[in-house]
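Just wondering, does anyone understand these tokens?
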Amino acid sequence: MRRSQDRILTSHAGSLPRTERLVAANAARAAGEDVADWEQLLATEVADLVARQQEAGVDLVGDGEYGKSMTSPMDFGSWWSYIFQRTQGLSLDEGGAWVTDRHLSTPGDVRLTGFGLRRDQQAFREAYTDPTSGIFVGAPPVFPKVTGPLRYTGQEAIAADIANLRAATVDAGTADAFMTSLAPGSASRIANEHYADDSSLLEAWADVLREEYVAIIDAGLILQIDDPSIAENFDQIEPEPAIEDYLAFSRLRVEALNHALRGLPSDRIRYHLCWGSWHGPHTTDLGLRDIIGTVLQINADAITFEAANVRHEHEYRVWDDVELPEGKVLLPGVVSHATNVVEHPELVAERIVRLATRVGRENVVASTDCGLGGRVHSQIAWAKLRSLSDGAALASAELWR
């Protein structure tokens, strides 16, 4: 994994806006229609996307999660829901359950509430239930539930994703490419009617997802683990748990992830931490300071995290007190998915510099808070990536003068 040796490199958190023809093709396939030349269409779209990332100044490119179906331009969930299409042992849960009752591994039972019942949504119920608010939450979708032994069935899908990205990087003349895959802790946030306990369920998901991890690494790509659950679960526990209880709860998920990553090279793995990408107040978010020690136990040398949205931008100061372990790299979000305002390059540079002066310029790669695809309009997303690149150039001029 490249480091910022002579300038600040740039990347992003994974999802990028889908084109109109890709959204239309995904919608047709979801409706059961045959899409002529689907494989060629997807390959072409990924190749065009990689070239466009390079034009925008992105150094460490990805496939935009194009192989993870998105049937509308605005879609907050494809990063997560894709795995259910690649896993055996699931059935639709007509009750729409998001998670089931669970217990912390230390005293103090808690219940993870249903999707749409976050504590943030309870605190701002009027805003969340107002269709004119911009953060309206309608009827919850139908989620799957675990009803049998979990087994990975996505070999052909991941092979196609890998082939498309590899071909695109060859055409573009770059080897610096990454691909995302879900973490066991995030995958497990659905109802479970088969496994005896939380640990067994997490272990099963770890075994399922390891197949994707190995395939991505073996293909010579960088693996990015998408895992909002470590931070986001905190907002879905009612009542609010004590921090020490929540960390014990989270360590089970870190252990499951590390089990899935066993034997894989940590210098080719990046871990994406975020607080969920929904556009809400986020007043009940857990602080970075509370969980960074747990996150640093993950067997990944790079950490991508939200550092630009206004609920977490101040947390760069965490690195005044937390020492970045040897070999670790930070990919802070310096442009955000949470606003349509395009960040000025000088602000982007400021965000980069204040973190680089704390952890070392070679240990910072400028990135996005979260995936831009499905969160902001395509035109805005690409303007943000251009501002990201321009800001990194300004920061480089200051840091290497």
